[in-house]
From TrEMBL:
<protein>
    <recommendedName>
        <fullName>adenine phosphoribosyltransferase</fullName>
        <ecNumber>2.4.2.7</ecNumber>
    </recommendedName>
</protein>
<comment type="similarity">
    <text>Belongs to the purine/pyrimidine phosphoribosyltransferase family.</text>
</comment>
<keyword id="KW-0660">Purine salvage</keyword>
<dbReference type="GO" id="GO:0016208">
    <property type="term" value="F:AMP binding"/>
</dbReference>
<keyword id="KW-0963">Cytoplasm</keyword>
<dbReference type="InterPro" id="IPR050054">
    <property type="entry name" value="UPRTase/APRTase"/>
</dbReference>
<dbReference type="GO" id="GO:0005737">
    <property type="term" value="C:cytoplasm"/>
</dbReference>
<keyword id="KW-0328">Glycosyltransferase</keyword>
<keyword id="KW-0808">Transferase</keyword>
<dbReference type="InterPro" id="IPR000836">
    <property type="entry name" value="PRTase_dom"/>
</dbReference>
<feature type="domain" description="Phosphoribosyltransferase">
    <location>
        <begin position="47"/>
        <end position="160"/>
    </location>
</feature>
<comment type="function">
    <text>Catalyzes a salvage reaction resulting in the formation of AMP, that is energically less costly than de novo synthesis.</text>
</comment>
<dbReference type="GO" id="GO:0002055">
    <property type="term" value="F:adenine binding"/>
</dbReference>
<dbReference type="InterPro" id="IPR029057">
    <property type="entry name" value="PRTase-like"/>
</dbReference>
<dbReference type="GO" id="GO:0044209">
    <property type="term" value="P:AMP salvage"/>
</dbReference>
<dbReference type="GO" id="GO:0006168">
    <property type="term" value="P:adenine salvage"/>
</dbReference>
<dbReference type="InterPro" id="IPR005764">
    <property type="entry name" value="Ade_phspho_trans"/>
</dbReference>
């Protein structure tokens, strides 16, 4: 079994959760199994080291940005492996001090994201990580926040992509998902 098939075997689809019509992709079984979690993180790091860092201007990634809340299961672990900074994008009202803000629509609602002003130094290279890309609204808003701070966004990476929702089309930066699921 390839590592992609192995990772995919832990994802579970729940029909009509949290709303009718949504095929919800549950990532938590991956985190219950330490070998699966290790395979997941190693797969991401290998992708970044072989496909993203060689094409980065300074041959490095400065910042990993992850999205509230399931992205936080991945962002700090990947950042630590790469020796990069970790910066959170949080739902509105959770971060202290001056923040940049971006509103967005997602598969089952609307929301607002924030990032602390100055969290990214202009010119730093950035990768955004999250568990799922569905409509792409969350990742597009996070991309706006990175760009507002002067970050150079290299790639968006996800465990899984709900292909029928075409979220990648909302993003101006290359996107990688390990697994593709039908919505
Ligand atoms: O591509 P989109 O349509 O924007 O949807 C994807 C986003 O939705 C989920 O987060 P959610 O807002 O449900 O929050 P959670 O991570 O706290 O569960 C998921 O973790 C992504 O961040
Ligand atoms: N289909 C889906 N599965 C899991 N998380 C999601 N977030 C938005 N859409 C989702």
């Amino acid at each position: 079994m390839s590592d992609v098939e192995y990772i995919k075997s832990f994802l579970t689809i729940y029909q009509d959760f949290p709303k009718k019509g949504v095929a919800f992709c549950d990532i938590f079984p991956l985190f219950r199994n330490p070998l699966a979690f290790e395979a997941l993180v190693t797969h991401f790091v290998h992708h970044l080291v072989s496909d993203v860092i060689p094409n980065s201007p300074d041959k490095k990634i400065d910042v990993i940005v992850a999205l509230d809340s399931r992205g936080f299961l991945l962002g700090p672990v990947i950042a630590l492996r790469l020796g990069a900074a970790f910066v959170p994008v949080r739902k509105r009202g959770k971060l202290p001090g001056e923040c940049e803000r971006a509103a967005f629509e997602k598969e089952y609602g609307t929301d607002e994201f924030e990032m602390q002003a100055g969290a990214i130094v202009p010119g730093q290279t950035v990768v955004i990580v999250d568990d799922i890309i569905a409509t792409g609204g969350s990742a597009a808003a996070a991309s706006d926040l990175v760009t507002k701070q002067g970050g150079k966004l290299l790639k968006n990476i996800f465990i899984a992509e709900v292909t029928s929702l075409k979220g990648k089309d909302k993003l101006n930066t290359p996107t990688y998902s390990i697994v593709q699921v039908d919505g």
